[in-house]
Design the sequence.
């Protein structure tokens, strides 16, 4: 088995930290955020994002809803 | 560097890395961070307000000031000129679409979204014409 170089080890460590997420997130926060982007609140979350764009023509451009979305 | 949307930003912050997302450094355009922050600070709708209210200060901090090893917020200044050019070319898109497209052009001609709903018709059409691949990673 070939060992990793120092550069490879550093890259692997950065990769590991990136995929580990933010250490400040609590288990309770993780559960809430999961509902927001993957669970029952996805519709409300998307509506909230769209509402921010719709309320600001500089941001959203003043197009129809589909255009504002993204 | 991979440019992502608000959904993927939230997912990687709480360590749910989508299977279809390349294992590279991630960046969120400033306009999309703005929308996320607005939803966090001023959640419209009763249920969303109630759900977000119990988020602890450390949880909020992770979204307000993402750890750069997890998620970077793109500096909008180098993207301004290209974004203005794109906006002019498409009849005055808003900053959200223009910055996202400019970021896509600057970073590998790719954009990653966490849901199809968040792409939008105008961005999808413009991305196709500008040679930017739009991916949905769930």
Sequence:
């Amino acid at each position: 088995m070939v060992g990793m170089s120092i550069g490879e080890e550093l890259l692997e460590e950065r990769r590991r930290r990136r995929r580990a997420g933010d250490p400040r997130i609590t288990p309770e926060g993780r559960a809430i955020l999961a509902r927001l982007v993957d669970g029952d609140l996805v519709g409300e979350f998307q509506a909230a994002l769209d509402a921010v764009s719709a309320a600001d023509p500089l941001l959203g451009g003043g197009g129809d809803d589909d255009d504002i979305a993204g | 560097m991979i440019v992502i949307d608000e959904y993927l930003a939230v997912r990687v912050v709480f360590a749910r890395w989508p299977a279809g997302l390349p294992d590279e450094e991630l960046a969120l355009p400033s306009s999309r961070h703005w929308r996320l922050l607005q939803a966090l600070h001023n959640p419209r709708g009763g249920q969303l307000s109630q759900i977000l209210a119990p988020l602890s200060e450390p949880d909020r901090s992770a979204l307000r000031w993402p750890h750069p090893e997890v998620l970077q917020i793109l500096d909008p200044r180098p993207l301004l000129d290209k974004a203005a050019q794109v906006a002019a070319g498409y009849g005055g898109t808003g900053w959200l679409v223009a910055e996202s497209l400019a970021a896509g052009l600057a970073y590998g001609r790719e954009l990653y979204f966490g849901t199809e709903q968040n792409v939008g018709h105008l961005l999808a059409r413009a991305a196709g014409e500008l040679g930017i691949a739009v991916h949905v990673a769930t």
Notes: Chain B has a mean pLDDT of 93. The beta strands of chain B are 2-3, 26-28, 72-73, 110-113, 133-136.
